[in-house]
Amino acid sequence: MPIEWLLLLCGMLVLTMYRKFDLPMPAQPGPGGAAADGPAVFFLGQVLTALDLYCLVVIAFIVLQLGVFTRQHRRDLRTAPWSAFWKHISTRLYPEQILQDVRFTVSIVIMFVEFGMLKNLIPHINGAVYDSWFAAADRFLCGGVLCSQALQSVFGTAPATVEVISDHYLWYYSYMSLVGFIFVVAASRELAQEYLFAFVSVFLVGTAAIYLGPTWGPVYSDPKLFDFMKHSEIAGLQQSLWKMKVALEVNPRDSQAIFMISGFPSLHIAVVTTGSLYLARLFRPFAWLSWIFLVLTINSTIYLGWHYVLDDIGAIALVIVCVYAARRLRWRWLGYVDYTPGGWAAFESGRPR
What we know:
By secondary structure, the protein is mainly α. It has 15 helices and no strands. The chain has helices at about 1-20, 40-70, 80-90, 95-120, 120-125, 130-140, 145-155, 160-185, 190-210, 220, 235-250, 265-280, 285-305, 310-335, 345-350.
């Protein structure tokens, strides 16, 4: 897949940048990495996890098809054409297709590892912080207060409210995995490759945007405004990221001191927007659920202080650019594909073109 070449070039860039700054690669791009676990160990662990999930998705796909088949022949399963059923399954799960699915899955894992490595270099690339600009825009748009404060006044700050909104924010990780595997099992491989290119591009171009205009977000620039969250699970995550930032300032060569704070653009919003746009071309009921989840995610990123409004607006603009580029490049590689969205046929059309 062409996206693999982009990931290869990005990997070379990562190696070059770490050598240039004479820095060790972090043990793990996120909290919880052990000092002995270098990026290779972390990468292999993520690949194994992704392949485990892929196996579960394949099993779920077979069970789903089995349910459809038995419902169609529920009057007399003894005379049902089981050979036709297994032939249908085999046209979707043949070796070449499984290999392509695995490459799709591993590409996403590689992207996340590279993204974590690149994000860790933000303080070395651009040490400026532009929160004051984004906060001024927030106050202009939300009547003189941060938009986080405006949402807090609407929904309140009771612990139960914080917990519910925190759950919305954390569901993002499950959402991202679910949408990725929907495209793994979808019959339109051209659409899956286009989605993969757009998804990876969002993270890589988003990283470049983070380098150009680093921000911390309201919860770090105005922490007193979020004291009401101090006993919540999400506050623990925010404090953990800040502690790693402080540790990095003390010892830049500590492989466990990892910088993972960024505001503009909101990649949470970018990922959900990308998923919603592509689900609309695959199966519209999924897309409606995704759009609802996008609204909840926008609310949670602002309410919890992770992002300013401009972070979310910038994310949507980023998605528009990346999706346009993915479509144009797909046409260049594969020619124009007449794809008609709509229903479950996208899952059941057999061997892809």
